[in-house]
Amino acid sequence: xxxxxxxxxxxxxxxxxxxxxxxxxxxxxxxxxxxxxxxxxxxxxxxxxxxxxxxxxxxxxxxxxxxxxxxxxxxxxxxxxxxxxxxxxxxxxxxxxxxxxxxxxxxxxxxxxxxxxxxxxxxxxxxxxxxxxxxxxxxxxxxxxxxxxxxxxxxxxxxxxxxxxxxxxxxxxxxxxxxxxxxxxxxxxxxxxxxxxxxxxxxxxxxxxxxxxxxxxxxxxxxxxxxxxxxxxxxxxxxxxxxxxxxxxxxxxxxxxxxxxxxxxxxxxxxxxxxxxxxxxxxxxxxxxxxxxxxxxxxxxxxxxxxxxxxxxxxxxxxxxxxxxxxxxxxxxxxxxxxxxxxxxxxxxxxxxxxxxxxxxxxxxxxxxxxxxxxxxxxxxxxxxxxxxxxxxxxxxxxxxxxxxxxxxxxxxxxxxxxxxxxxxxxxxxxxxxxxxxxxxxxxxxxxxxxxxxxxxxxxxxxxxxxxxxxxxxxxxxxxxxxxxxxxxxxxxxxxxxxxxxxxxxxxxxxxxxxxxxxxxxxxxxxxxxxxxxxxxxxxxxxxxxxxxxxxxxxxxxxxxxxxxxxxxxxxxxxxxxxxxxx
Length: 583
Hints:
This protein is an alpha/beta fold. The chain is built from 16 helices and 15 strands.
């Protein structure tokens, strides 16, 4: 009987995947390739088009209208030695129409060659560095990112120029604040202008810095509150309609943004159409949202949704799935694929079945629209398929954060040619099967034993780096005790001695405990800065004890005592949840 049920499920999945068509998604991509989606008025136009196309197929759409605080970049330039250098200001740069003049100082930094390192700060802050930077304009390699700009602002720079790694200049955002600021966030709002220049101009400016020359930085910015449309489709399941998989992606883009993220918007459009037509075949619900404020508000749309529906998400969301940059040319592989450890085996199976590819999963970055870590929701995808490293190297491309690895990312070149119909069709089916299978699984397909193994590896790594300066043995024991309890839980679940509804409650509750302890520093229902969060961040200081002298080492140990208490308490809470079922 069980085998028959599996055959029926495979047929159901095949039938639903067979309903995918490129007619609507490609039409949306072609339309979006004709107008920019940066200003809220243009973003709202795009939102209205998504809603109209859905309603044409009978799909019910709820249009939210949040008030978001956004920063809209305008023109920028750098003047030096009688020359004008083209530049782009990142969102949340301050407005400097009158110009900020100062001595230029070059601080050499690596351009991170791997996407896993893209969001890291570039240089180590020292007293010597601070003395060299204070009161000056800094130029350094990078995308004028939050880590780069906030680091130099903190030590006294009056402006920052980021040298992009190629001939194009990439748009971006430089605030460390995640989403619309609250009162506690406001002190971290950037207070200096920042711009990005291309590599040739950056090298010319660095030469001016070497001579002790001065430059003037000009930026034009518009900042304030904007009413932003946010369409939501809620496709109700038949057995557990209150439980849902959240599928989401951003609609606002830089310029026309075809690969980032018109292709993602089109993917979600088609999944909404197909699942709506097949809603009688869903056990759990599927909730689909298109975000505003991703590019100009540091994920303001998804953060608003996370805040507004936090308690509902806490109670009912079984997974969140981010859809960004699918369907791009040459994107044949699924490498650097963001997923939380408990989801990897599930996601690997989906991609193997649809694409015939092996995934290379990695820890989700503090980026994308991962605005739900504080709630504690198992998550997979951020970016989608990408080109292989060998091809990227052959083309001389550097690492970017989207567009399937195409360096058109965040530039005027992200046009219709970046999208690929065959890749798009495959990626729509990958996303669709993942969401469908997640929604219809009798038992949620997440394996917390994998997360426990990740934790064990993290603790071991931190202990090796800490040496005899701090003892993480209590954390090691707490992880081992949780892992043992989880082995019993999954064994009983496999034997059928735990009711699926009970098992699902435990699996979901574990996410509420273990995701925040692995991905957040701040209290639940608040948002960490848009800076890298290391694994098990409450004890991450153990990996950096070499940086401390005799005095500050004691402060670091105090932090570790408190952080270890937090970690062990969470691990014990998770173990108790499991033991209530296992006995």
